[in-house]
Design brief:
Number of domains: 1
CATH architecture: Beta Barrel
Strand content: over 45%
Distance between the termini: 41 Å
Order of helices and strands: HHEEEEEEEE
Number of strands: 8
Structural class: mainly beta
Shape: elongated
CATH class: Mainly Beta
Radius of gyration: 19 Å
Strand order of the largest sheet: 1-2-3-4-5-6-7-8
Number of helices: 2
Length: 202
């Protein structure tokens, strides 16, 4: 599974890179350092399967808010981020949930002040939670994810951008306990906004 996710990530970066190289002469010296603060709302999907293999109606699904920090660089139509995000759900069934990853984006200039972007990424998701049907056995996952995102990047000033986007994360992880239901984590949907500060590279 890790091999498949890495293959998808490499393919996504390769596609984005090929687009970048096509316009290389346009932005060879147009580079920025980026620092972003992100906040958003997330829907996490999981299934609970009983020891006999039957899908349980009490599957774990949760909603959570997140805040994150991302640092990166931009050159012309292409930018890349390293990101770290922390999540908190309303009913506090999640003891913790964090993600650490890398995302690449390609920016399509729509107007002088607005870009449309698509992106792909990957990383690691860590979480620990207590199922409502078993408060004595915490469940944890520490697995890779693959993500895709799209949205709009609005130039508020020459040095500040507002990014509004949606992100899909494919997790495909499982937590198993002897004689207890297995939890299969599938995906997470996110709507987010970021304030991105740009600094001119020398």
């Amino acid at each position: 599974m890790i091999k498949k996710i890495l293959q998808k990530t490499v393919l996504g970066v390769a596609v984005l890179s090929s687009s970048v190289m096509a316009d290389y002469s346009d932005y060879m010296y147009d580079g920025y350092s980026l620092v972003g603060v992100e906040g958003g709302y997330n829907s996490l999907s999981a299934e609970m399967v009983d020891p006999d293999g039957v899908l349980n109606a009490q599957s774990f699904n949760d909603n959570a808010y997140h805040i994150g920090l991302k640092i990166g660089a931009q050159t012309g139509h292409y930018r890349i981020f390293l990101s770290a995000r922390m999540y908190q759900d309303a009913d506090e069934s999640l003891e913790y949930l964090t993600t650490y990853g890398i995302e690449g984006q390609y920016l399509f200039n729509m107007f002088n002040s607005v870009d449309f972007f698509i992106g792909a990424g990957g990383g690691i998701i860590n979480t620990k939670f207590l199922p409502k049907d078993d408060l004595t056995t915490p469940r944890t996952i520490n697995d890779p994810y693959f993500s895709g995102e799209m949205g709009f990047n609005i130039h508020m000033t020459p040095w500040v951008d507002l990014e509004l986007g949606g992100r899909y994360m494919s997790v495909d992880a499982v937590n198993s306990q002897p004689d207890k239901p297995n939890y299969y984590f599938h995906d997470m949907m996110t709507g987010y906004a970021s304030i991105i500060f740009k600094y001119k590279m020398d």
